[in-house]
Amino acid sequence: MSELDDSIYRSLDDALSGVYECHKCILGDTRTNVVPGAGNPRAKVMFIGEAPGKNEDLQGKPFVGAAGNLLSQLLERIGLKREDIYIANILKCRPPRNRDPRPEEIEACTPWLREQIKAVHPTVLVTMGNFSTKFVLQTTTGITRLRGQVRTTGPFRVIPTFHPAAAIYDRSKISALEADFDLIRALLDADERREHENM
Prior knowledge:
The protein has one domain (about 5-195): Uracil-DNA Glycosylase, subunit E, CATH 3.40.470.10. It is about 50% helix and about 15% strand. It has nine helices and six strands. It has helices spanning about 5-15, 25-30, 55-60, 65-75, 105-120, 130-135, 145, 165-170, 175-195; strands at about 40, 45-50, 85-90, 125-130, 150-155, 155-160. The protein is globular, with a radius of gyration of 16 Å. The model has no long low-confidence stretch (mean pLDDT about 95).
């Protein structure tokens, strides 16, 4: 492993330093496991969801339930695997009964997400659902109006899309998700073409 690789891994560990002991909000008292994130620490694409669900809380891993299976299928459709991406959530602990994150919980937890984004430093951020989209883009506009368009925040291109869990309950959202994932592929392909042209 090169020095560059070591520094990348170390910076992601630094980004999450203290997360397993966190009790900055009430979710620290009700969780089974902290679910900080998973995947390739050098990923070009980083996915950001809302919060761990029951399966994630039990296993300590993000997106391992039905929504995770759909996410894997969508990735495979555009030639990516879970090992190619990095995935995290706005909250690192499960809200009881999967209720929506509360403002004070988002405020307490998102400093870790900010540090994760800096450490991974992807070229594309994919925000899944209202909470991650509103946080990353600092907007009050809902996901239905924002999805399917490439936005920019700082050095990052952002693709807002529906949360896969929403498509589990409303299958009509599958086609929108597929279109948004096609947009991810198009951005990555364009980046690869530019890299080859500059070689």
